[in-house]
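Quick question, first post here. What does this chain look like in 3D?
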Amino acid sequence: MHISNLDIKTMTIFSNVMRLRNLSQAASHLGLTQPAISQAITRLRKHFGDALLVRTGRGMEPTPRALELLEGIDAVLAIVHEKLESRAAFDPTGARRTFTFYSTDFGATLLLPRLVNALREVAPNIAVRAHTNNFKPAAHQLEAGEADLAFGAFTDLGGTFYQQQLFRDHHVCLAGRLFPPVTTLGKSAFRAASHVVVRPLPQGYHMVEELMRNELTSGRVALEVPNFLSLLMVLRETDMLCTVPARVGLAVGKLLGLRSFTPPFSLPTLNIKMFWHERLHRDPAHQWLRALAAQRLRMS
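> Answer (accepted):
Ran it through. Tokens below.
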């Protein structure tokens, strides 16, 4: 690796790892994945021809070369922060601008009301625009500047994207009003029912489609709709089943008087996160927005 490839992000990773002596903690602190941290350290080891961090009985310890490098890298980062990143603090009370979000329509139903209410309390002149276009992936919209943040269980956002966990979710089966009056949903009843599904699904939400493909015979998927909320209107008039994320499914299903069941098959947990592109990582307005979103959208 040429010296010109020692970018600010790599140096920041090095500084955090050296001080925390723990890759997982450094990943959490920087909003990166642990593999991204490991890859950066591997590149630095190759470049400097030194192990940099070695495992001992006391945990990870820096080599003498690493300690020598840390002093110089921290000096460079201090200059960058002082000379290039000194910006006026963002004042939300008087700011007039629009922030754009990408999520599924189910995610927007659950999260955006909370966020809009928070903005109205502390930043009344800030507006919100939501995108739920499944034909443009979250990565594209964040890279192109079409969205400031993405909310969801997306699995294709790595590399130049930061992330922060908001909450975990599971799945439920919502039954149409004409569904037989059973108290539990077994595997045979699930397989015999007619199902309605959303297609296309965004990255990270394909486990339901895999379940349908593996467990249902041909013809049991009776209807495909373009978005999650269309499911609910269908269920008001039919005996169909749909399998959806639990938090918003239960909330909206309750409003419509729909019954919910635990799926008779195991489905992976949904890790709902907030994602953003690295070009916005140090922008004061976006730092403020992310802090507000993390505070208001976290759920137990």
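The chain has three domains: 3-84, 97-167+272-297, 171-268.
The first strand starts at residue 53 and ends at 56.
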